[in-house]
Amino acid sequence: MIEPHHGRWIARYIPSYDSAYVSLRNDATFDDQLDAAFAIEYRVYHQSWPSLEDLDEFREEMSDCGWVLDSHQLDFDEWRFREKAT
Q1: How far is CA 83 from its chain centroid?
Q2: Distance CA 86, CA 34 (A)
Q3: Does the predicted model carry a pTM greater than 0.85?
Q4: Under a CB-based contact definition with an 8 Å cutoff, are residues 56 and 72 in contact?
Q5: In which residue ranges of the chain is pLDDT below 50?
Q6: What pLDDT, in 10s, does the model give residues 52-68?
Q7: What is the maximal distance between C-alpha atoms in the chain?
Q8: Can you tell which superkingdom this protein's organism belongs to (predicted)?
């Protein structure tokens, strides 16, 4: 169950293992990281991936509640990979 591309990230959720993975491009921003983390949480709860409107609504509601969204302390493990040359 791979989430469609949203620009600089892609997410995968594996219900049978209760695991999720996010791949971020080198140019991913704090916004991309937050969107990817939200998408995983949304997927687990709603059993579907969020739309772009859901992502925007989440950001608006968090900002309205006083959350600062231009930085965060999400803990991503860093693994680097490159596309295999053909």
Answers
A1: 21
A2: 33
A3: no
A4: no
A5: none
A6: 899 999 999 999 999 88
A7: 49
A8: Eukaryota
